[in-house]
Amino acid sequence: MIENINEITEYLNTNKDNEEVVGLIKSFQQPLTRDVVETWCQDGDGRSWLDRNCDIYSNKAVKTAQENAIAKYEKETLPTKIDEAIKSKSTEGLTPEQQQLRELKKQLDDMKAEKEMAELLNINSNKLKEKGLDTSLAKYIKEDSDIEFFSNLINNSVQDGVKAKLGDSDYKPPKTNGNPLGKISWEDVTNGTASYADYKAQENKSI
Question: In the chain, what are the domain boundaries?
């Protein structure tokens, strides 16, 4: 006869594979439902576990919210604050009339700079056109040496492309009887006796 809890434990462990013992143990087991979990979390170990996990996720949520708020402030608000501070410092000690004159001068300077840039682009476009180069390169031109650079770059690229296409074949361009008008032909470009820029310039002039 079983008289104390130790004997019960020993009996169950010894006969754990017995069908009657297995059925008895299952009859004492409570199904895991939402109500069971909520009851377990109300106090004791369950409450401690719940509080600990809530603290972890709460701290993570707070940290994420702080990081998002800082990032939004730096992106949307901070640049404006900096500009306002710089503007306020630059006009410090000036009368409203002086501030208005300074603002007007800045607008005039900006308009002058835009006009000079437009004129420079137009000049560079014409120079590029004379060389038979793409006028969209005008915005990259600061001095005449830049035009020469692009001209050489394109000429070399064309000649390299022609050489790569012809390779070491036995093909030879047909001989001509000369050109009394001095017109540059594509043959002259492939032979290397004339530049691609000069060829394009000639084509543009004939249009």
Answer: 47-90, 96-156
